[in-house]
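Weekly modeling sync, notes
Attendees: S.R. (lead), two postdocs, one rotation student

Agenda item 3: backlog of single-chain predictions. S.R. asked that every request posted to the team notebook include the full sequence so nobody has to chase files. The rotation student volunteered to paste the first one in as an example of the format we agreed on. Action items at the bottom.

Example entry:
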Amino acid sequence: MKNIVLCWLLAWSSFHCDAAINWQQASLTYLYGTDYRIGDPKRHVLTLEHAANTSWGDSFLFIDHSVSTQSTHTTYGEWSPRFSLGKNTAWQPSSGLIKDVLLASTIEQGERFTNFLYGVGLDLAIPGMKFTQLNFYRRQNDIGANNYQATLAWALPFQVGGQALLYDGFIDYSSAHGEKATSVNFTSQLKFPIQSWFGVQNPIYLGSEISLWRNKYHIANSAALKSNEVNVNFLLKWMF
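Predicted structure, as returned to the notebook:
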């Protein structure tokens, strides 16, 4: 885990050396679920996230550290910087739906692999949404053949009976390649702020994360190895 964290910190420092930061937000999330597929079903997960909007684009970073109830430890991270054409060229979007077009990239790093993704991203203007992003990638996989991926990410704040709620998440569609099956990951969080319970200013959220997988990790679901996942996690998130 130490090497993975060091790599992300070095990358993050390099990304910000010449960029003016418009805003940035970090968070720490604790999850607990009992229906994970592929490996131990019961796991505690601690996630560190950092999102930023800069003078030349935006960036999203997360690192997951998972500990199963059988004491198996795994670490996985992604860093997704995007370069804005709207901010850095004379081009401006003509469509009311498209706010910006970006050069999109992602680095995925696990314990035994590093994948590189590159492509095009769109920032979309959807009424009521805090943000909506759609990215199309070519995947350069460390293990197995290369393939393609589309990722939709969103955040929707709303209220029910005067209670503020936030529904956010992402959908990854990753195409089949070689002997690996098409994989779909639909992960979303529904949460509400509870910082007033503790008399603090920084947002604290309580809620749940629902993870739906079809052919998790590109492993075809079968009677012998079930890779389709429906997993509801307890969630506690601190923003800082």
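Discussion: group reviewed the output briefly. Residues 2-239 form a domain with the Outer membrane phospholipase (ompla); Chain C fold (CATH 2.40.230.20).
Action items: rotation student to repeat for the remaining queue; S.R. to check formatting next week.
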